[in-house]
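Readers of this paper often ask what the protein records in our data store actually look like. The remainder of this section carries one protein's record, kept here as part of the documentation.

:::
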Amino acid sequence: MTTDPHAKPSWRTRAVTALLRAGGQRKLLATPEGVHAEIAKRDRRDTEVRPPASLRKRATVTREDLDGWPVYRITPNDVTTDVAVVFLHGGGFFREIVGAHWAFAARLAAAVPAECVVPIYPLVPHGRAAEMVPTTAAILARTIERRGTGSTVVMGNSAGGGLALAAAQTLRDRGGPQPSRLVLISPWLDMTMSDPAQAEIEPTDPLHLRPGLVEIGRRYADRLAPEDPRVSPLFGRLEGLPPITAFAGTREIFVTDTRTLARRAADAHVPIDYHEAPNLPHNYALFPAPEGRAAREIMVDACRAPLSAGRR
């Protein structure tokens, strides 16, 4: 679904977009060397990742370790949850989960209401597709086993969206249970960055440049080919996957791949609910703005949908 192509972003979205552009990510993604320097700086910090303390005031937060990854469960207080959402954060596989991700997970858990499962996966160069995708699939399978096929959603933004799709494909190929729905927010689905239409969009994207993204993809792929579906799930089969809800903005270079996903899902007879927002940037669906709030309402309904259908 695409709304009016001439629609202007709200002032809040314009403000967030300006902050993103001023943040300097485009500069570090201009060259492979910029990526290397950012990874080295990140590794020197070597800080433990944990939810902010404020989160525990409105939710119960527990931790367990699965296959060596910390996995946090966020459950709203004093509410029965019939749905589990496995949320895979973004950050381009080279940046850690941030406060906005935790806040989104907590608000989603309260709104559905749902138990939100947040794996903390390793980042490149320590995190590689050959290990990360099977581990994510195992965490998803365990959640489905615990909560049920009809009440488990897997959701991811940006790099986490690609990881979510790859994990679902892996479960399908193994004959394992599928989640009830995939929710993909500005997903990064093709590490080759080879769609020719991206060259036209790139100057308007406030966050991304292809040279750095290709280098991240190379490190994430490691010994695998960039076209391997574990690395770039857009190259994998879509048949046998659950319904998909997807979001992308026309001012992000990943929109080309989300469009391809929508076409291929329809061809594979996979129900697809695609929301393409004109003149909006990457991850707009998470912004504290009217466009973000509207997108999050759709996400909440998508998480509730399988449960509602089962009660009819």
